[in-house]
Amino acid sequence: MTVSSLQAPAPPHPLSDLLPQEVGVRQAADGHTELAVDRGQLIEVLRTLKESPATSCDLLLDVCAVDYPERAARFDVVYHLTSLGTGQRFRVKVAVGEDDPVVPTAYGLWRAADWFEREAFDMMGIRFEGHPNLRRILTHEAFQGHPLRKDYDPGQRWMLTGDETMVPSWVKDAHEDDGEFETAVLNLGPQHPATHGTLRTVVRLDGEVITKAECEIGYLHRCFEKMSETHGWNQVIPYTDRLNYCSSHINGAGFALAVERMLGIEAPPRAQAIHVILSELSRIMDHGVCLGAYLVDVGALTNFWYFYQVREEIYGLIEACAGGRLTLSYSRIGGLAHDVPADFADRVRFLLGYIPKFIDDVDKLVTANRIFRDRTEGVGAISAEEAVAWGWTGPCLRASGVPYDVRKAHPYHGYDQYTFEVPVASTGDCYARYLVRIEEMRQSLRIIEQALATLPSGPFITDNHHVALPPKQKVFTEMEALIWHFKLIYEGIKVPPGDAYACVEGGNGELGYYIVADGSGRPYRVKVRPPCFAIFQAFPHMLEGHLVPDFIAIQSSLNIIAGELDR
Amino acid sequence: MKNVPTVNVDRPRQSLVERTYLIPIFKGLGVTIRHFLRNFFGQRDVATIQYPEVKRQYSERLRGRHILTTKPDGSLRCVACYMCETACPAECIHIVAEEDPTATVEWEKRPLVYEIDLLRCVFCGYCVDACPKEAIIMSRVHEMAFTTREEAVVGIDELRQKGPIESEDIGYRPYF
What we know:
The complex is a heterodimer of chains A (567) and B (176).
Chain A: H1 3-7, E1 24-27, E2 32-37, H2 42-51, E3 59-67, E4 75-82, E5 89-96, E6 102-104, H3 113-124, E7 127-129, E8 183-188, E9 200-206, E10 209-216, H4 224-228, H5 237-240, H6 248-263, H7 269-297, H8 302-322, E11 331-332, E12 335-336, H9 344-367, H10 370-376, H11 384-389, H12 394-398, H13 406-409, E13 422-424, H14 430-453, H15 472-477, H16 479-491, E14 498-505, E15 510-517, E16 523-529, H17 531-543, H18 548-558, H19 562-566
Parallel strand pairs in A: 2-5, 6-7
Antiparallel strand pairs in A: 1-2, 3-4, 4-5, 8-9, 9-10, 11-12, 14-15, 15-16
Helix pairs in contact in A: 6-7, 7-8, 7-14, 7-18, 8-9, 9-14, 14-18, 17-18
Chain B: E1 6-8, H1 16-19, H2 22-41, E2 66-68, H3 83-87, E3 93-99, E4 109-117, H4 126-130, E5 136-138, E6 153-154, H5 156-159
Antiparallel strand pairs in B: 2-5, 3-4, 4-6
């Protein structure tokens, strides 16, 4: 190599031909190409990213806002995009001021922007110009202020009077599409036995056919993101257990992964393999609960017990590892809280023999059953293009024929070492979603088998004393360890200033964490990209033209988890 | 999509056998009757536990109600360093420190008040991890019922170790 080649200027970014000159392009450390865009050029840049063959960002993953009160342009509106074809990831940032927090809506490009923009409006007060339905989403209509702004006092209380309930505007013009039958408006949920979480759906009926629907969510809103800003990095992990409570371990592992990326460290190989085993067991539980409840809703009770028997055994193992069944708090930044018990491998091996019997039993009972097929085939069908436009990920997207799986597209925790296949179906209906989940459980068992066979020995957490608590024996006996212990507890992990987005494949799809750090011991901003949220924004639109009993089948097949929907 | 290995799970249209409805139903009945007979006559692989007569045996890591451990002389090991209070994500621990009059060295602290609000506690075990003296550990007691909110705030007397440590139903504690 000659000296001149070392000093050659960096080649222009391949994007610079496509985009306007003023757009700042930068390669971020977390694998995203970051674009700083002016508000006036936002839609043009987003359209280029979507439509140009070189980028082809078909999936809008997340829209959120970050508040920097000391800056002149106080808010950053952040878009996360990915291309299903090339796997490239983009982060687009637009800065807007407090007196005029207006950004044009991306709803015209991706329908996925619908609820994400409403959330950014609700939480930060960013107004998206041109959005068809810019109302509050997680908080109540009568709520005042924008809770994720840094100057919002979380101790405030707002009085709620009885008449402030959400009534969609179209309820009043009930007669416009009167068909053969009288039009009626019906509330399904939030306290409906088939809405397993708390989801309120208002539907307008023409006879028994749903002609219009609208969802109201937020009944389980627990201020996860606001609370994260007032606690240390590791203290967020118990909160993540409550996101998707059917597969808690995946959430904690994902959060730890995001922070590890920012710190530039990696969990030791043993911790990664244990993360994989527990995540896949969690996925089996998640799919089992989803399918069990789904089949109960369409009238097949026995399967619920078979899956719950499996779940009970898995919880036994998880409790022996973590000390809790539902709320594990087992992940830590840099690894795991403690090593797995001595009989871990035997117990996982037992589960590998035990679980398939129950999956096969359900398969025999349900898959060929004509009642079930007639009830679910062709119901709630969604095409691949529509599913991608709505920002779907996970088993529901794969049921429409798009083989997007974070474990394959952006491997983490060493998923690229394991051989497994991504199940896809083509019809995108309720039956396809059932088939995909059944096959995914079998694929998860394959991954567990391989991960167990190659389970490395060694440490279960990094020995970096800036990140992980020292072992207790050392704390009791050595001065340095005690000092590190004190500093970590009192000051927290010092994550360098910056931001990162990391994603894992959760039970319902891509679970992403966008994290901003300011160098102190606490997160500056944590944004969760819950897979359920993107899926359920399409739900009211999917209902149109279906019968009321189909409502139950569609909703259950999408797997509603209110914990991550409402956060 | 860069060559992701996929498996297609689409199923063909319903076959004649499937459309008869009865044959798959009998196959399905075979599954449930097999489960019934096996549980009726032989091995009972039923996950149901007849709680509260029968109780599940939890592991030694189960995070239940806390115990404040004591030194051989019966005084608390806690030195009121506030580590557990700082580490608690639920902010359920409240400590007031005082000077220990019985200490052999100067400025030794001990807790005057040590309260845990068990209704706020999320049983994550961070207090146990944070403690540099192994002064707080957890038991496997997970059945806690209260009639008032005040009752759920437990102090030193309720949390203190009752007898020798072996006699307690020990759950989560440091290093395994």
